[in-house]
């Protein structure tokens, strides 16, 4: 399994323009919440526990994040739990409210993503590596940490990795 900084470096290579990163601060949370809303309505029971696809996806994502880094994984799990709480509230509304909210967040979130990648001039990371879909929310969280002055050693390593990859790409 790749280390967290390797995943973040790979993702950051596609996100070096600050405008692109800024659009991701809006778009990725919208997409995550939109998906959670849409996947919170179908319910099924397993051993008297009510499950939804959103809850299963959140648990799997949390395990992935915790395996990468325990502290950041726990923080991501808390954020995802808040998303699930909101998604469950929306899913309990009328079908119209549920669909409009989930679909609206999802579509508008992707509009932000593609506007950001227009600024960047590069395609989204997940087109080359599907793990970009799960790294995206982690990237936004870690970028927030960088803005708060945390994990500056990671930031430096990620920036160096991106410079190396840019240099290698320019030589081709």
Give an overview in words.
It is a single chain. The chain has a two-stranded antiparallel ribbon. It is mainly α and 172 residues long. It has helices at 4-13, 18-38, 53-68, 70-91, 95-120, 132-147, 152-171, and strands spanning 44-46, 49-51. The protein starts with a helix and ends with a helix. The chain is globular. Helix 1 (4-13) packs across helix 6 (132-147), helix 2 runs antiparallel to helix 5 (95-120) and helix 3 packs antiparallel against helix 4.
What is the compact description of this entry?
With 172 residues, the chain is mostly helical.
Topology record:
Blueprint lengths: L3 H10 L4 H21 L5 E3 L2 E3 L1 H16 L1 H22 L3 H26 L11 H16 L4 H20 L1
Antiparallel strand pairs: 1-2
Q: Enumerate the spans where pLDDT stays under 50 for 5 or more consecutive residues.
A: none
Mean pLDDT: 92
Q: Give the SSE string.
A: HHEEHHHHH
Overall tally of domains? 1
What is the count of DSSP helices, taking H or I runs of 4+ residues? 7
Beta-strand percentage range: under 5%
The gross shape turns out to be globular
Strand tally is 2
| SSE-based structural type | mainly alpha
Rg result? 17 Å
Spatial ordering of strands, largest sheet? 1-2
Estimated helix fraction: over 70%
Quaternary state of this entry equals single chain
How many angstroms separate the termini?
A: 28 Å
* Biggest sheet statistics: 2 strands, antiparallel
């Amino acid at each position: 399994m790749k280390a967290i900084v390797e995943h973040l470096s790979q993702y950051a290579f596609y996100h070096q323009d600050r405008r692109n990163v800024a659009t991701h601060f809006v778009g990725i949370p919208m997409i995550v919440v939109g998906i959670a809303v849409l996947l919170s309505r179908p319910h099924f029971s397993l051993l008297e526990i009510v499950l939804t696809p959103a809850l299963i996806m959140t648990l799997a994502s949390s395990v992935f994040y915790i395996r990468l880094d325990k502290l950041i994984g726990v923080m991501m799990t808390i954020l995802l739990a808040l998303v699930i709480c909101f998604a469950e509230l929306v899913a309990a509304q009328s079908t119209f409210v549920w669909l409009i909210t989930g679909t609206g967040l999802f579509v508008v979130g992707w509009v932000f993503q593609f506007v950001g990648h227009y600024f960047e001039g590069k395609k989204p990371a997940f087109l080359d590596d599907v793990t970009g879909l799960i790294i995206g929310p982690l990237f936004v969280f870690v970028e927030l940490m960088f803005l708060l002055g945390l994990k500056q050693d990671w930031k430096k390593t990620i920036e160096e990795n991106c410079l190396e990859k840019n240099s290698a790409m320019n030589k081709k």
